[in-house]
Q: What sequence folds into this?
């Protein structure tokens, strides 16, 4: 019996640490939260979410705090109604070994997306629905484009369990009604929804383990795309619709918006010292204009060294110090020549451009070998960023 209090104390310690970190970052949250949400209320919601899902405490802490900051920026509470914190498993290469990490991502829910769109004041109402195969075949769903676009849906109230299966969903749509009574419609067919699902880290079908002893082993889909496909389909079409609605750019671009603010706020919460220059490779890189790079694969933010004017060197001159360092370290491997670097750059550029989905793109990027110079890596990062943006725009 004497050991029980100690065990409870140990379990409460991570929560207490998180509570202190959130309290320390209250000023940072206050800067981005809307007026109707106090930092204290936001903090209580986070702690409730963590108590409901203790695995969040074991995940990468910086990714959890970054998810909190993103939720604060959108003014959504992570209560699994407006938004949720979702844990993803990912691998990153440290030296010659692959290390598995648990990272947290912020995801707005359908109710949260609707709330933000309505808060614009321009949209009076917005709703999303899914369409089942039998409804289309019976004429209960009609959608026509053209000069007189038409969308009519009479949902069937007598669907059987088989007819209402996830596999029977053939489309999803969103209808927004503006304050002046006009409407805007977005429709996505099943194959378009599936393309978004395939970009998911956990919901994608047909994935295999790419590294380690389980290489080649099938990865079973899991998560909301498996458990709540209709809700994910509705959220997907509403998210796409939001990109064409008034003020939508201020609402839902969670992957690319305000990363600098989030990163610097999280660093303030963690009271971290100024970071060293960025490693040569990240699991996945998204740039902003101020030199902050977000590791999309593990949602880890690192500040890069400020650009400093340096005397220009030839590519051959740049390769020589690397050769000397390798020799001094007793590295028996031949350092990369300029031709080697050019060939590697060409090969990985071609592979990234031919990637079929976002997970494949990330995996290709992390395979880029060490030893490339800055010019090669900058061009490869630019290719990756362009491909990453193309996949995300398709969502």
A:
């Amino acid at each position: 019996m004497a050991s029980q209090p100690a065990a409870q104390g140990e379990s409460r310690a991570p929560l207490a640490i998180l509570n202190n970190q959130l309290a320390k970052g209250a000023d940072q949250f206050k800067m981005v939260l809307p007026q109707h949400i106090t930092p204290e209320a936001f903090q209580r919601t986070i702690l409730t979410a963590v108590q409901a899902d203790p695995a969040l405490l074991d995940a990468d802490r910086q990714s959890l705090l970054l998810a909190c900051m993103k939720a604060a920026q959108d003014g959504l509470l992570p209560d699994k109604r407006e938004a949720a914190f979702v844990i993803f498993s990912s691998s990153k290469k440290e030296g010659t070994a692959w290390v598995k990490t648990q990272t947290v991502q912020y995801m707005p829910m359908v109710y949260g997306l609707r709330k933000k769109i309505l808060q614009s004041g321009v949209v009076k109402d917005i709703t999303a629905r899914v369409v089942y195969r039998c409804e289309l075949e019976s004429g209960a769903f009609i959608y026509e484009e053209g000069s007189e676009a038409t969308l009519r849906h009479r949902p069937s109230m007598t669907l059987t369990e088989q007819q209402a299966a996830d596999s029977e969903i053939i489309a999803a749509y969103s209808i927004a009604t503006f304050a002046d009574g006009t409407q805007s419609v977005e429709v996505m067919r099943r194959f378009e929804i599936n393309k978004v699902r395939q970009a998911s880290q956990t919901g994608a079908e047909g994935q295999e383990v790419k590294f380690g002893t389980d290489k080649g082993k099938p990865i079973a889909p899991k998560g909301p795309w498996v458990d709540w496909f209709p809700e994910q389909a509705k959220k997907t079409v509403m998210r796409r619709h939001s990109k064409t609605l008034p003020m939508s750019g201020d609402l839902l671009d969670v992957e690319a918006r305000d990363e600098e603010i989030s990163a610097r706020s999280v660093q303030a919460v963690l009271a971290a010292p100024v970071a060293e220059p960025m490693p040569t490779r990240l699991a996945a890189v998204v740039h902003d204009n101020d030199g902050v790079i977000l590791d999309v694969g593990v949602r880890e933010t690192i500040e890069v060294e400020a650009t400093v004017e340096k005397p220009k060197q030839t590519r051959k001159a740049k390769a020589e110090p690397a050769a000397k360092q390798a020799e001094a370290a007793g590295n028996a491997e031949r350092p990369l020549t300029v031709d080697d670097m050019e060939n590697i750059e060409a090969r990985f550029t071609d592979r990234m451009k031919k990637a079929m989905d976002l997970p494949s793109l990330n995996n290709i990027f992390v395979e880029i070998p060490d030893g490339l110079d800055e010019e090669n890596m900058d061009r490869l990062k630019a290719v990756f960023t362009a491909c990453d943006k193309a996949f995300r725009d398709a969502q």
